[in-house]
Amino acid sequence: MSDRFKAETEEDLRRLRKMLRKVTSGDDETVRRRLAQKDEARILDLACGDCREAEVLTDFIADLKGERDESVVKLTGIDVRAREIADANLRFSGKKGLPGKPGRREFDFFTGDASKLDGHEELGEEFDLVFMRHQNYWNGAKTWEEIYDQALNKLDDEGRLIITSYFDKEHQLALEAIQRLGGELIKTEFNPETRELQTEGKSVDRHVAIFKRKK
Ligand SMILES: C[S@@+](CC[C@H](N)C(=O)[O-])C[C@H]1O[C@@H](n2cnc3c(N)ncnc32)[C@H](O)[C@@H]1O
Hints:
The chain contains 6 helices and 7 strands. It has helices at 3-24, 28-36, 54-65, 82-92, 141-153, 168-180; strands spanning 40-46, 72-79, 104-111, 127-132, 155-165, 183-190, 207-213.
């Protein structure tokens, strides 16, 4: 990994942290209260690629939860690309905690089709956070609608779904599709610090939106 790529990735992740706080503000008390009652909080990262955001997500949930020594934040990531999953495993699988912080982290990644999670009973249900970074609705609307549907099904009653998008139009289409499938949009935010990429109109975590399940 070149120094420039590394520096850009770190900056992107710092901005993602900010955006997660921004998009949950106003809704975070409900989430905090519920997480504080549990010993284990669970995150599902769908189509996670090499899941470079794994630590950002576990930190984010741990902060909301108010970590105690015995608390666990567990992240499960899934992607169809075996190579990216191998990279994620290499980077995070051994990490059980963070220096100087209470609580444990657990990371688990596997290669699989996120549109067919029903075949993975070991995953269980009732995730506190389901996350999709740079969802790819444009690249196969049918598959992505199936993935959104699975994402909503995996959410706990009071869990939250967060997506990020590269493009304006793709974000809009995803918002519409997720609401059609039973998601209630809580908030969507444009990232003012988004890093522009080479393709016109494409930038990193350009939009971030949060949903819950419609009652
Ligand atoms: C735009 S990339 C985003 C990757 C990563 N989340 C990121 O932000 O860097 C879309 C990802 O969706 C994954 N993907 C596409 N269809 C999938 C499926 N049916 N099940 C799981 N992953 C899928 C691809 O392999 C790819 O990693």
